[in-house]
Known about the structure:
The structure holds two protein chains of two kinds.
Chain A: E1 3-14, H1 39-42, E2 51-52, H2 53-65, E3 69-70, E4 73-74, E5 76-80, E6 90-94, E7 100-109, E8 112-125, E9 129-131, E10 141-145, E11 152-158, H3 165-181, E12 194-204, E13 214-219, H4 222-241, E14 250-254, E15 259-262, E16 275-276, E17 283-284, H5 287-295, H6 301-310, H7 316-323, H8 326-337, H9 342-360, H10 371-382, H11 388-401, H12 405-412, H13 420-433, H14 435-442, H15 448-459, H16 466-478
Parallel strand pairs in A: 13-14
Antiparallel strand pairs in A: 1-11, 1-12, 3-7, 4-17, 5-6, 5-16, 7-8, 8-11, 9-10, 12-13, 14-15
Helix pairs in contact in A: 3-4, 6-7, 8-10, 10-11, 13-15, 13-16, 15-16
Chain B: H1 5-14, H2 21-38, E1 62-63, H3 73-77, E2 83-84, E3 87-91
Antiparallel strand pairs in B: 2-3
Amino acid sequence: MEFQPVIGLEVHVQLKTNTKIFCGCSTQFGASPNSQTCPVCLGLPGALPVLNKKVVEYAIKAGLATHCNIAPRSVFARKNYFYPDLPKGYQISQYELPICEHGHLDIEVDGIGKRIGITRIHMEEDAGKLVHSDVPGLGSGSGVDLNRACTPLLEIVSEPDIRTADEAVAYLKKLHQIVVYLGICDGNMEEGSFRCDANVSVMPVGSDTFGTRTETKNVNSFRFVKQAIEYEIERQIEVIEEGGKIVQETRLFDPDSCTTRSMRGKEDAHDYRYFPDPDLVPLVISNDWVEDTRLGLPELPEAKLSRYQAELGLSLYDAEVLTASRELAEYYEEIIAAGSQAKAAANWVMGEVTRGLNDNGLAITACPVSPALLAELLALIDKGTISNKIAKTVFDEMWQSGKRPEEIVAEKGLVQVSDTGEIEKIIDEIMAANMGQVEEFRGGKEKVFGFFVGQVMRASKGKANPAVVNDLLLVKLKG
Amino acid sequence: MRITRKEVEHVATLARLKLDEEEISTFTGQMDAILSYVDTLSQLNTDGIIPTSHAVPMENAFRPDETRPSLGTENALANAPERTDDFFKVPKVIE
């Protein structure tokens, strides 16, 4: 029997706020255990949560960027369960009335477009962190660090519209790109700022009833998501083909073996007994607030991609590379804004700049050559002051010294020679020294032309204007 | 009956409460009475009435995204039944 996998994803996006969702404690990563805590996030009796306005702004942004409706009224709810990383005995989340609903993302796999529905986006608090080893005096116990407790999260839930692991990865990459572009998440998957739970089931091809699903938790890289989903699909098909039944359960992905395994003892945990949190008043979002936020949205990758092609005349490939991250796109756009030609600037950013960054392990935001200075360099090429080849030497020098290109060109005497008299003199010398090759050329062997170009360029130390050299050589060689 | 003995046992498990036989009987009876009383409400027609989630007619209490001093590790751990290093110490949790 052929099986059709059905996949839905729940993504937890950690928001890039200064403070926690319901208290003023810092969200800075890496602080010493329990140093960023207060009565609210420790769950001390009588402490009252107050909503961080920035979290709401970020949630609206995420909702708008994924084509959701923003609920005029939403409510926080308590999700009740016991676990040592959850000091209150409940997590504050949203349930019946989330802030965003009914959105979608358009993805593309192997050139085929597909729309993935987004069921809902809601705001919630993160739990604390448990450690099981590497703490002095831990013995047979576990340690609890509540610094992360109450950190703001968005949970973004997709419709079960995804059919393959590749579609799942395409969806996640797109969502990741959007939240990073929006500036609401740092996107750091290793630190857990963007993590994914995958709901997977299989059904016979042609069936319209979904199979029983499993939920694989906290898969924290794109590669692991692909592996976890592919493993889970195969496992479920095997179970069914052997006459077994899929149990609805939570599973954990093990990256070492690329398998998933059941997390036992959590069967009861799904009875969360949600109810509205009386400590938090309802959230009412006016149409004005939504529209103001919409106006403040940055240009998103999809829009940039089409604009780069339509208005700047770039190829799809170039546009994709340049819009991959917001920082790179902004770097590129600053060069254009300083007057450079779109295609030339694209070539430089994707060529020399990217190479330099890769060689030195730098991010674009740490690029030693500013967009403004790179634009000055491109202007020198445009004016014919230096050749493209010399420009690369100048660029390396700019990278090292941070000097302006004009300064470097003047210091090192790199100005391109376009003066025909000077170039003619060099050509005459080269021809006189290589009469044999001159005869060959005149005898019809045109390939030696390249030899002469090389000799002239070398004699001029690369400074001769190649176009002028070509023109003059042709005239002189033909005699 | 609005609630069964089995449901009471289930809720007790979720709440990490250990009840003896007699308590289960008592609570089943009491909870049944409470639920039956609340059922009185279903005699009213509530079509078109927004469910009440909050008793106070108030909305949108916000704080700005500005850090305030935390308690600090020592204060945070001051009442911990058990601690080790800078962590609360709890019985081993195995996933």
